[in-house]
Amino acid sequence: MTIAFDPSSFITADVKTFLDDPKKLFIGGHFVEALSGETFDTIDPATGRIISAIPAAGVADVDAAVKAAEKAFQTWSATSPAERERVIHRFADLIEARAEEFSQIESFDTGKPAGHIKFVDVPLSVGALRYNAGWCTKIEGSVPAVSAAGMLCYTRREALGVVAAIVPWNFNLCQAAFKIAPALAAGCTVVLKPAEQSPLAALYLAKVAAEAGVPEGVLNVVTGDGETTGAALCAHPGVDKIAFTGSEEVGKLIARNAASSLKHVSLELGGKSPNIIFADADIETAARTAAMAIFFYTGQVCTAGSRLLVERPILERVVSLIVEEAGKLKLGHGLAPDTTLGALVSQEQRARVMNFVDVSREAGIEIATGGRIPSQFDDASAFYEPTVLVDPSDDSRVVAEEVFGPVLAIQSFDTIEEVAARANRTTYGLASGVWTRDLAKAHTMASALKAGSVWVNTYNQFDAAAPFGGYKQSGYGRDNGREGVEKFLQTKAVWINHGA
């Protein structure tokens, strides 16, 4: 039986108005039509229905956005730190006040449960803005003790300039905030390009920025695909810095192309994060959290704990507990109040996830649960069952590659030395988890794991004050924390001959 669901009955009047209004680019503080007049559709992945027609920004539109950001940079970078802080705080306040609207819009666009967005994505976004607002008045240089007689040397920390912020479809609002907040605090201006699969939250963010008094041109939003809009933005000579979160393949392309003009680049790319449970752990808590680590947001999280390594004596128990947790998940539209597992972002993404499972099935890997398209939803939707694979080999695709779906590969191990080596035998290094009551073991693993984040007896912890980024092919540069601000700054040394 196909489940009929009308999401329009769950949205606020403001969201309905926003969705019904024609969508436009946000350039120089104004919403404007794309010069070409071309559009593309954004789709509700839970129903397959068109939500809105989105403007496809061309080269000329991108040029206008960058020029608006260049013009605004002259005044924003010279604005007093206290005033920049006030504007960013006001921006944060309005996002917090519109938490319901942002959660509904992003849910419509991505399939994620609105309740989760409201209590995860929105607070993280608001926290990033408030944390970085405080940095406005704390960016300072130094006075090096130089050896030259009669010379005073001091340093200035200055904004890089125009930032191209390119964000992925799974965390549109969060990733935008993680880039906009430190860039604006540093005195930079931004051209934001959301992923074409989920552009709505970025356009609503532009609306809120204007209401918050963010000056014209300081934040601009251009929508479109990567091949045209994204490429034009990255190649523009007026862009000084590219801050990208997305796939490894696109990140490498951006880095190669940016090298020709020596643009500053920071990349937060994919992950294949090992989550390790030792036999001395609190097994029930570890298993429940491990299930959340992979099934949260349908596994479409760069830090998803998609590879679970379990000490052999407790393997059977952990598999049983996780299968039990998977069975508790309620699949449904993200706007339905009881939904705990939404749709994948698109049928294309579901087909990719299915291929991983089908290849595993053909290889004889045990499927403890899931591995199917649920039959109760419309054929145009993009739902997939939470899936658990048991003891695939290290060289299997489901272990070696990023699936980006609700698919967990559970493997067994025998020794701490073995599991550390196997966990690191990957091209990725974004995040990892360790579950143990042994403090020495916890510190040993934290040191041994080659990953930008190591969570011990917890998983997926984020805070605006804590740096986040990857090792190896998971990228370079850090969001959040002091490092998140510093990547938007450059240092100037000033020498004064005070003996002249």
UniProtKB/TrEMBL annotation:
<dbReference type="GO" id="GO:0016620">
    <property type="term" value="F:oxidoreductase activity, acting on the aldehyde or oxo group of donors, NAD or NADP as acceptor"/>
</dbReference>
<protein>
    <submittedName>
        <fullName>Aldehyde dehydrogenase family protein</fullName>
    </submittedName>
</protein>
<dbReference type="InterPro" id="IPR016161">
    <property type="entry name" value="Ald_DH/histidinol_DH"/>
</dbReference>
<feature type="active site">
    <location>
        <position position="268"/>
    </location>
</feature>
<feature type="domain" description="Aldehyde dehydrogenase">
    <location>
        <begin position="32"/>
        <end position="494"/>
    </location>
</feature>
<comment type="similarity">
    <text>Belongs to the aldehyde dehydrogenase family.</text>
</comment>
<dbReference type="InterPro" id="IPR016163">
    <property type="entry name" value="Ald_DH_C"/>
</dbReference>
<dbReference type="InterPro" id="IPR029510">
    <property type="entry name" value="Ald_DH_CS_GLU"/>
</dbReference>
<dbReference type="InterPro" id="IPR016162">
    <property type="entry name" value="Ald_DH_N"/>
</dbReference>
<dbReference type="Pfam" id="PF00171">
    <property type="entry name" value="Aldedh"/>
</dbReference>
<keyword id="KW-0558">Oxidation</keyword>
<dbReference type="InterPro" id="IPR016160">
    <property type="entry name" value="Ald_DH_CS_CYS"/>
</dbReference>
<keyword id="KW-0630">Potassium</keyword>
<dbReference type="InterPro" id="IPR015590">
    <property type="entry name" value="Aldehyde_DH_dom"/>
</dbReference>
<keyword id="KW-0560">Oxidoreductase</keyword>
